[in-house]
Each structure stands twice: as C-alpha cells, then as structure tokens.
Amino acid sequence: MHHHSQSVITFHQTTTQTTMALLDQNLFHYSLLSLYLIGPPTFISLKFLQAPYGKHHRPGWGPTISPPLAWLLMESPALWLTLLLFPSGQHSTNPKALILMSPYLLHYFHRTIIYPLRIYRNSKPTSGFPVSVAVMAFGFNLLNAYLQARWVSHYKSDYDGGLFWWKFFGGLVVFVWGMRINMWADRVLLGLKREGGGYKVPRGGWFELVSCPNYFGEIVEWIGWALMTWSWSGFGFLLYTCANLVPRARANHRWYLEKFKEDYPRSRRAVIPFLC
Ligand SMILES: NC(=O)c1ccc[n+]([C@@H]2O[C@H](COP(=O)([O-])OP(=O)(O)OC[C@H]3O[C@@H](n4cnc5c(N)ncnc54)[C@H](OP(=O)(O)O)[C@@H]3O)[C@@H](O)[C@H]2O)c1
C-alpha cells in the first residue's frame, strides 16, 4: 500500500513536470512565432509613418517623458529579465552559456545605462519622447529578452558541438565591429548636438557612406549575434531590427535631403554602404 501511494505521488510529480515543460516550450515557440509575425507589419507601417521621436517628433502622440529616462526604461527588460530568467535555465551553470550571453548583456548595459547618461549629460533634449512609443519598445524588449535569454540558458542544445567556438568567435568579431561603428556614430551625433544650434550635417568616416551609420552598426551587431547563437531567436531579432531601422534610416535620409538640400552630400546612401 505504502509503495503504491508513493508511486502515485511520483507519477503525479512526473506528469506535472512534463506538463510544465510542455507549457514552457509552447510559450517559447509562440513567442518566437510572434517575433517573426510582428516584423512585416512593423516594416510596412514604418515605411509610411515614422516613430515620432527625435527628428520625426510631432505632436499628437500623447504625453512625453525625457529621452534619457525613456531609453533607460524601455531598454531595461534586456538587462533585468535576462538576469531574472537565466538562472532557471538548464545551461545556467555552463560557462559556454554565460560567455554566449555576455555580448548581449554588454550591448544592453551600454544602451540602458551608459547611452542615457551620455544623452543626459551632453545635451538639452530638443523634444520629449512619447510614452506611447516607449511602451511599445518596452513590450518588444520584454519579448526579445525572454527569447534570447531563454534560448541561450535553456533551449540551445548544441553546446558540445565542435563548431561552438567557431560560431562564437566568428560572430563575436562581427558583433564587436558593429558595436564600434554604432558607438562611434552615436558619439559623433551627440557631439554635434552638444555644439547646439540644431541639427547639423554629420561628416567624416562612415557618415560619408551612409546617413545613419549608427543604425548600420546596430544591424551588423545583430548579424554577429545571429551567428554566435546560431538560432531562430537570434535571426528573428536581426530581421526585426532591420524591419525597424531600415525604414527609419530611409526616413532620416529623406529628412536630411529635404532640410539641407544641395548642402547634403548626394553620394550617401541611407544605411547600407553602396546599397540602400
Ligand atoms: N535595435 C533596434 O531596433 C534599435 C531601435 C532604435 C534605436 N536603436 C539604437 O539606439 C540609438 C539611438 O537611436 P536614435 O533613433 O535615437 O538615433 P538618432 O536619431 O540618430 O539620434 C541619436 C542622438 O543624436 C542626436 N542627433 C541625431 N542626428 C543629429 C544631427 N544631425 N545633428 C545633431 N544631433 C543629432 C539625436 O538628437 P534628437 O534626439 O534631438 O534627435 C540623439 O540625441 C542608436 O544607436 C540606434 O542604433 C536601436
């Protein structure tokens, strides 16, 4: 009798665990599907309607907050959700998983903490950041941090594959290269902003090739991340970043041409050197 009830309890525990694991997998798969499904409508709507912050700020989008605070809040899930989820993954103590997660955390440490501090110190904001846009970005970052952190810490299964370090270092080189371009470009832009007197034509380096080298660098970073993680979640993030930043870069490019007219160098492309 005793043995029987013991095995019933074990049976219940196992089915509960299996059910939880299945729910967990479903959550992951549906989230991944959502990441792919939100890309195309984002791309299409941003072609017609620019997110109303910075150069494309316009009234009618509800209350605004200061841009550094907006960046801090909306990008923060990438840090806190990742740190919250990572320990419960089956690979959480695998050094390879920790190493793989760190470029993502490094990027978001910069974007969430350092970048807002730079904006805050360097300049008076020209316009507020709409709360509505920040809330959408916050939602995206929740979804994306969940997918990236859960993939690396739990669902990735080929840590012992022989190609791990090849993919990791290959992707890391690309990632670091992109991050350097992104940070360099943002520093140039913030330097111009600090000079005061409104928007100027940025010059030198990558700015001679494209209007938005900061977005180009960002896209290169996530190409590196897709290679490093070798995953649908990494690739989905790359596609979404392009869906978001390519239309905005095109809009910025048109904006520069309209504002500076013949003073704006005609040879520049919007975001991908020599291409678009
Ligand atoms: N992963 C993603 O999907 C994603 C999405 C969005 C942004 N990001 C990244 O976040 C960072 C900021 O993005 P953003 O859209 O705010 O970039 P941005 O429009 O280029 O602005 C960057 C900063 O430079 C200032 N600035 C821009 N052009 C200027 C000019 N010609 N003269 C003087 N000042 C100028 C802006 O001031 P104002 O604010 O007054 O315009 C702002 O403070 C970028 O590194 C971007 O790659 C990533």
Automatic annotation (TrEMBL):
**Pathway named in the protein's UniProt entry:** Steroid biosynthesis; Hormone biosynthesis; Plant hormone biosynthesis; brassinosteroid biosynthesis
Keywords, alphabetical? Brassinosteroid biosynthesis, Lipid biosynthesis, Lipid metabolism, Membrane, Oxidoreductase, Steroid biosynthesis, Transmembrane, Transmembrane helix
Q: Which InterPro entries match?
A: 3-oxo-5-alpha-steroid_4-DH, 3-oxo-5_a-steroid_4-DH_C, SRD5A/TECR
Listed GO molecular functions? 3-oxo-5-alpha-steroid 4-dehydrogenase (NADP+) activity
Protein topology in the membrane = Multi-pass membrane protein
Which residues belong to any copy of the 3-oxo-5-alpha-steroid 4-dehydrogenase C-terminal domain? 129-275
The answer on whether this UniProt entry bears the keyword tRNA-binding reads no
Q: What is its EC number?
A: 1.3.1.22
- Per the similarity annotation, which family is this? Belongs to the steroid 5-alpha reductase family.
What protein name applies here? Steroid 5-alpha-reductase DET2
- Upper lineage: Eukaryota, Viridiplantae, Streptophyta, Embryophyta, Tracheophyta
